[in-house]
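Example S7 (structure tokens).
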């Protein structure tokens, strides 16, 4: 006859008993019911205000409207790709400047990082577009690059400084210069820790491309605004939101999935795997040792 042992508790978490499990199930049922009721109420309001009427969804059947949305999506991805690349480069340059041994370079880099990080993105975009007379796409990309690059500079600097101090001390002991230590020792280790934050900042850059419609850049939100303001279809604002929002969410989720995939590939890389140590075996005893 076997006896069932009760699950052992840990220092941080006690296994719930029967009463607690019933209470948790009740909480889950009530929360699910409230969420479903809220969703039902929202759907009822949309139906009651005629948001699902065929006339409001008719524009999406026309080829011209579809091409307008696709063109806007392409312009959004173009602006994001340029801003992402330039932001990563600028962030790396400013981070190196902040870590420099030269005081003037370090102070200048710090001043630039703090200034562009404190400035609202929209103000920078408008200043570049209006005051400097720059075209919409370069103005949008420049504004996004200056802001996100300054934020990423702090991410890179913090990531490199978080690497264990013994790593660069050992590299210096081998005769490596500071540039070699940063490039070949510190940066590869810091990337794994920085990757989630980098992707999160790139998601911010992707969403901020929607500010382009304020300077007449024909991106995805600008295309949706043109459709939503069409009087011939009864101002289909909600249908446009219901079409555009899932695409934005899907692109952000795709970035997050890409970050997870890169992290898994990094862990599988033979260069980053831990070296297996052979188990200890009896050896020859030293003279005089019994």
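Recovered sequence:
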């Amino acid at each position: 006859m076997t006896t069932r042992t009760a699950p052992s508790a840990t220092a941080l978490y006690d296994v719930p008993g029967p009463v607690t499990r019933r209470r948790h199930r009740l909480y889950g049922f009530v929360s699910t019911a409230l969420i479903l009721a809220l969703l039902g109420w929202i759907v009822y309001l949309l139906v009651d205000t005629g948001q699902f009427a065929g006339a409001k969804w008719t524009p999406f059947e026309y080829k011209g409207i579809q091409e307008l949305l696709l063109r806007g999506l392409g312009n959004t991805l173009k602006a994001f790709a340029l801003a992402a690349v330039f932001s990563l480069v600028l962030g790396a340059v400013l981070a190196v400047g902040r870590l420099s041994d030269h005081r003037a370079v370090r102070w200048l880099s710090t001043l630039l990082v703090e200034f562009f990080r404190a400035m609202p993105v929209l103000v920078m975009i408008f200043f570049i577009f209006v005051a400097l007379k720059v075209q919409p796409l370069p103005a949008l990309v420049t504004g996004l690059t200056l802001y996100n690059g300054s934020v990423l500079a702090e991410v890179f600097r913090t990531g490199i400084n978080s690497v264990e101090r013994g790593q660069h001390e050992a590299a210096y002991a081998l005769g490596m210069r500071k540039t070699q230590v940063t490039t070949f020792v510190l940066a590869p280790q810091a990337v794994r820790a920085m990757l989630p934050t980098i992707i999160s900042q790139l998601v911010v850059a992707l969403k901020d491309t929607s500010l382009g419609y304020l300077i007449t850049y024909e991106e995805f939100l600008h295309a949706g605004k043109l459709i939503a303001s069409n009087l011939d279809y009864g101002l289909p604002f909600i249908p446009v939101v219901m079409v555009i929002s899932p695409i934005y969410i899907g692109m952000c989720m795709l970035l997050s999935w890409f970050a997870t995939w890169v992290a898994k590939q990094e862990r599988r890389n033979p260069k980053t795997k831990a070296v297996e140590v052979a188990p200890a075996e009896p050896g020859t005893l030293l003279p005089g040792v019994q």
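Notes on this example. Residues 274-278, 283-287 have pLDDT under 50 and may be disordered.
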